[in-house]
Design brief:
Elements: E1 15-19, E2 22-25, E3 30-33, H1 36-39, H2 48-58, H3 71-82, E4 88-92, H4 95-110, E5 114-118, H5 127-132, H6 136-139, E6 149-152, H7 157-163, E7 168-174, E8 176-177, E9 183-184, H8 187-199, E10 203-207, E11 231-234, E12 245-249, H9 270-283, H10 286-307, E13 313-319, E14 322-327, H11 332-340, E15 343-344, E16 346-347, E17 352-355, H12 363-380
Parallel strand pairs: 3-15, 5-6, 5-7, 7-10, 10-11
Antiparallel strand pairs: 1-2, 2-3, 4-12, 8-9, 11-12, 13-14, 14-17, 16-17
């Protein structure tokens, strides 16, 4: 019997080691990883340059209080703001913590309490971010939630207009709803939401926890749409496996997060900062990002071609290397079968197969993965 709380529905494999695009279980079996630890290992497992940077910091110091200056934090913050035309960064340990900071900042800066989020969204599992998440299954059993979150319909502007009022502090939205089924925002909808927020003096928060750090072929996914949010949040791929989150905001909001207003013992930990610093150097290179777009297009093309005649496959969608395959049947059995064949993939809800390969995936690895998916979904087709 395990001494761990049973909070995860774990698969029956135990990972022993990982390198690049592959992981190995304790039985020595190798797997091609098209999940990246849920969009975390964007540069592949144990990227040599990231590992070298972490090891160098490991030999200096591991932790010091945020009461003292940590030069690496300044370096990482400068790179994050320079690529976004933002001004300030608060470092946390996770995406939920980054979103928690964004919620607190929005309420404190505006003096208002209502925040509009969206049905099928996912923003985390702290009490505030759970309340922000528009999914009953995340919220069930925890009693009354924070009452100042309301849920609009994604890609439906009228529902946002109905929800906004004089007590609205912010609109919080994902560019692509990841846990909600890999559903991208329509461009007209997203631009209209940004304009609506601006016209009403409402802050726009973009949750880039899963879509950021090059996942869609831009440093952050909102940059595909020509909008200018007030706050964005990042985590997952930022540390390539080391726990780190960031809340990034425009200069006008800086005065509202002064000394004592927020904090984190481990936020901006030097080891995480060493990893993030190297991750940003590698990931934000224009040639690297352009290659992510090419690989993402290739992955979608291969999937659409190979699955075009498969009964029960409804749609292949996504952006960059964040792809969802919507099916007319539950996909968890297919996830298990692909694992047995040496390919790790994810689901996003009951009917969407989710692919989040490391951004360093090769075209040959894409071919191998899509061949396996093609044959697997044929076997699981309801016809």
């Amino acid at each position: 019997m395990s001494a761990l709380f049973p909070t995860y529905g774990r698969f029956e494999i135990a990972i022993d080691k990982a390198d690049g695009m592959q992981v190995w279980d304790t039985e020595g079996k190798a797997y091609l990883d098209f999940g990246s630890g849920i969009a975390v290992a964007n540069l592949g497992h144990r990227h040599p340059e990231v590992q070298k940077a972490v090891e160098a910091q490991l030999n200096k110091y591991w932790h010091i209080s945020n009461l003292y200056h940590i030069p690496l934090q300044e370096e990482v913050a400068e790179k994050l703001t320079a690529n976004n035309a933002f001004d300030y960064v608060f470092f946390a340990n996770s995406g939920a913590e980054a979103n928690e900071a964004a919620i607190k900042l929005a309420r404190k800066a505006t003096g208002k309490t209502k925040i509009i989020t969206f049905k099928k969204s996912f923003h985390g599992r702290t009490f505030a971010t759970m309340s922000a998440t528009g999914q009953d299954k995340i919220q069930q059993g925890f009693g009354p939630l924070l009452e100042t979150f309301v849920y609009a319909d994604y890609n439906n502007l009228e529902s946002v207009k109905k929800a906004i009022d004089t007590n609205t502090a912010a609109i919080m939205i994902e560019i692509i709803q990841g846990e909600g089924g890999v559903v991208p925002a329509n461009e007209d909808f997203l631009k209209s939401v940004a304009n609506l927020a601006s016209q009403n003096g409402v802050l726009l928060i973009i949750d880039e926890i899963q879509t950021g750090i090059g996942r869609t072929g831009k440093p952050f996914a909102y940059q595909h749409y020509g909008i200018s949010p007030d706050i964005i949040t990042s985590a997952k791929g930022l540390g390539n496996g080391l726990p780190v989150g960031a809340m990034i905001a425009k200069g006008a909001l800086g005065e509202h997060f002064g000394p004592g207003s927020h904090g984190s013992t481990f936020g901006g930990n030097p080891l995480a900062m060493a990893a993030a610093n190297k991750v940003l150097d590698l990931t934000f290179e224009p040639a690297f990002l352009q290659e992510v777009i090419k690989k993402g297009d290739y992955l979608k093309e291969q999937l659409k071609r190979k699955l075009s005649d498969k009964p029960g496959v409804k749609e292949v969608r996504g952006m960059g290397l964040m792809i969802g395959i919507e099916c007319e049947f539950e996909v968890l059995p297919a996830v298990r079968d692909l694992m047995a064949q040496g390919l790790l993939v994810l689901n996003a809800g009951p009917n969407v197969l989710r692919l989040l390969p490391p951004l360093v995936v090769t075209y040959e690895e894409i071919d191998k993965a899509t061949d396996l998916i093609q044959h697997c979904l044929k076997d699981h087709s309801p016809v």
